[in-house]
Amino acid sequence: MTAFPAVSMAARRRRASLRLCATVFLLDVAFCKGFVEDLDESFKDNRKDDIWLVDFYAPWCGHCKKLEPVWNEVGLEMKSIGSPVKVGKMDATSYSSMASEFGVRGYPTIKLLKGDLAYNYRGPRTKDDIIEFAHRVSGALIRPLPSQQMFEHVQKRHRVFFVYVGGESPLKEKYIDAASELIVYTYFFSASEEVVPEYVTLKEMPAVLVFKDETYFVYDEYEDGDLSSWISRERFQNYLTVDGFLLYELGDTGKLVAIAVIDEKNTSVEHTRLKSIIKEVARDYRDQFHRDLQFGHMDGNDYINTLLMDELNIPTVVVLNTSNQQYFLLDRQIQSAEDMVQFIHSILDGTVQAQGGDSIWQRLKRIVFDAKSTIVSIFKSSPLMGCFLFGLPLGVISIMCYGIYTADTDGGYIEERYEVPRSEVEGQDPKEESKEPLEPRSQDALAPPHQEPKDVLEKKTD
Ligand SMILES: *[C@@H]1O[C@H](CO)[C@@H](O)[C@H](O)[C@H]1NC(C)=O
Ligand SMILES: *[C@@H]1O[C@H](CO)[C@@H](O)[C@H](O)[C@H]1NC(C)=O
User: Fold this and answer.
1) Is the pTM of this model over 0.90?
2) Of 21, 32, 64, 387, which one is the catalytic site residue?
3) According to the model, what pLDDT value does residue 228 have?
4) Is there a single domain that holds both residue 343 and residue 379?
5) Which atom of ligand 2 is nearest the CA belonging to 348?
6) Is residue 108 domain-shared with residue 162, that is, in the same domain?
7) What is the pLDDT of residues 307-324, one digit of tens each?
8) The domain containing residue 265 runs over which residues?
9) Residue 108: cis peptide before it, omega within 30 degrees of 0
10) 359 lines ligand 1 (CB under 6 A)
11) 349 and 289 in a common domain
12) How far is CA 386 from CA 4, 350, 370, in A?
């Protein structure tokens, strides 16, 4: 009884000082940096008992500078909500050997370090997203749902989440393994059969379920294969607002992605109708298509044009095959949901001709396309420079060099980006020094993917 007021006093005082900080923040940013610890060599020995959220930055990197104010706010908020997660930053160029031990390959890299595990953050660099990630990954791997009320609460809070139903079993062990790798993306719970909503019918126990899109799906080992890959496929909602980053992530699913490419600012019926057709198909034909397809819309055609090396007139519908980089287009407008369903069926039964792909021919086309865009952008930004460069024989040589250079870096790039996750996913030893499920990025860890759309569909290339 006596301790209680004392605690709340302390909390109130802390809150007051934080409020003060938030006010002062505008005047003196330096004051609030106090909530983010500047880390040095001693970090390696001192960190063990705590959970740390660390920004590995380079002083010269522009994206790091952009992250800095966000990071200070993250530090401030984690402190004010009393989170056990400590927030720090490390100049990865000054402590490069330590940074590379943690598996830092680009700047900025955000990692949550928990014991021997290092989890990479790959989402948007906003305060709320980063904090949500820290809560999710720092908390229990599998969160028990002891009551129906808790279950309902979780259903309201999370658009997609996984639940294990049942007691101890080999399936549960697989579930825990999968969760330790995929907690960076989604939530994992466990519950007893009584707690699961009544509308759920389970033929077998134990079971793993995903709740999303106002319904649920049950994992079936025979039909769905490996549990981790099923979770990777099912961790997205059925209908999404697609951007370059998300499209890149969807590459993990290996599914077809049907996208209405529209101009969101254009309120004409052509644009809005196409979006609602895709939404309708996603909802009404879910049982038929959810294993093979993701649905969504994308605002504007710049990104998709670069990706497909094509000039799409919007509005239009494009279906991408994320496992082989092919895509499908219709030469006429989709008029109705039935029309769209027919289009999907003809893709699935192979009667529509696929375009694109990852053949040698496509790679050559990519080199030419990139060279062409480079030349166009040089002329656009500086016509004089363009004339000088390309008016001379030297220009010819530089184009050739550019072609060779692009071809080279392309290959190296893919290897660098994708070798790492594979070996790590295979060697699922939880005691690994640095565990980085599916970390694909070199360079600027989350450089806007629009800069390299070609990589989205090239990720399955081997
Ligand atoms: C909206 O889209 C229609 C159909 O594509 C097009 O004709 C029209 O010019 C667009 N309007 C604006 C404001 O961009
Ligand atoms: C998508 O690509 C995969 C891998 O090449 C292929 O097996 C599958 O048939 C393709 N899907 C369609 C609908 O073309």
Assistant:
1) no
2) 64
3) 95
4) no
5) 13
6) no
7) 888 888 889 999 999 888
8) 238-356
9) yes
10) no
11) yes
12) 73, 45, 16
